[in-house]
Amino acid sequence: MKVLVATDKPFAKVAVDGIRKEIEAAGYELVLLEKYGEKAKLLEAVKDANAVIIRSDIIDAEVLDAAKELKIVVRAGAGYDNVELEAATAHNVCVMNTPGQNSNAVAELAFGLMVMAVRNMYNGTSGMELMGKKLGIHAYGNVGRNVARIAKGFGMEIYAFDAFCPKEVIEKDGVKAVGSAEELYSTCDVVSLHIPATVETKNSINYALVNKMPKGGLLVNTARKEVINEAELIQLMEERADLKYMTDIMPAAHETFAAKFAGRYFSTPKKMGAQTAEANINAGIAAAKQIVGFLKDGCEKFRVNKK
Ligand code: 3PG
């Protein structure tokens, strides 16, 4: 059995070593394709792979067509919007993710972006503190929970909205559950986004919603760029000079944001929320174990596509 690790954005070496150990202990072969850049290299590498571990790498119908021996794809991470699930099902390929494995890393980066924004991008002028500010967590999944845990240490007042998470689950963490996204944005000084990119959420963070934020509002995005309606956010930030936007996922309109909103907009150059040795080890080794469990025992825990 051949297990391909196809990561355009590579894992830390220590994580690759751990993945290799798991795969070889099961008697399988590990093949590494890193920083491949062009899709053609991925198409070539998947030809004889039985299993693939990816990050944000795109697995579409073309890749699945090329991967004649493929049985399983594991997205080492949370969001699997980069995999065409229906095509995978049609190709009889099982798709899994590794929920929770990189969530602390992403949550910590959200705070890195928050501190940078409230300290005026470290430009030497007098900024503000997070203590006592109202934080809104938009979606209370694994990352959202970690954000809440860290926010307590900062002394923030914490609110959350999640259409799919029961109020009691949120409130047992000492977080105030609000009834709608609108209420969350009108209440909070800082909103941290943790929604996945789905048909329902794409473009949903729009003018009307963000405009509900109080004066000086800060929007932090460590989720997906697709959830932001970029044209509307640009229009709103033009009209409201008090708003700030910090993101770990470079917008399509990055040049426009950077040119128009210097001092109140920042994007990391490459999505790096999950880019820590710890997160790479957790997610990468979980992915390797899930592959071994699937190939040896047919275990489908964490499967995300239909059969
Ligand atoms: C995830 O969905 O797990 C995060 O967005 C991390 O993505 P990455 O593995 O591409 O850094």
From TrEMBL:
Q: Which residues form a coiled coil?
A: none
Query: Which residue numbers delimit the D-isomer specific 2-hydroxyacid dehydrogenase catalytic domain?
Result: 22-305
Q: Which domain of life is it from?
A: Bacteria
State a single Gene Ontology molecular function: oxidoreductase activity, acting on the CH-OH group of donors, NAD or NADP as acceptor
Q: Tell me which InterPro entries the record gives.
A: D-isomer_2_OHA_DH_cat_dom (IPR006139), D-isomer_DH_NAD-bd (IPR006140), NAD(P)-bd_dom_sf (IPR036291)
- Ranges for domain D-isomer specific 2-hydroxyacid dehydrogenase NAD-binding come to 123-250
Q: Which UniProt keywords apply?
A: Oxidoreductase
What Pfam families does the record tag this protein with? Answer: 2-Hacid_dh, 2-Hacid_dh_C
By sequence similarity, the record places it as follows:
Belongs to the D-isomer specific 2-hydroxyacid dehydrogenase family.
Q: What is this protein called?
A: 3-phosphoglycerate dehydrogenase
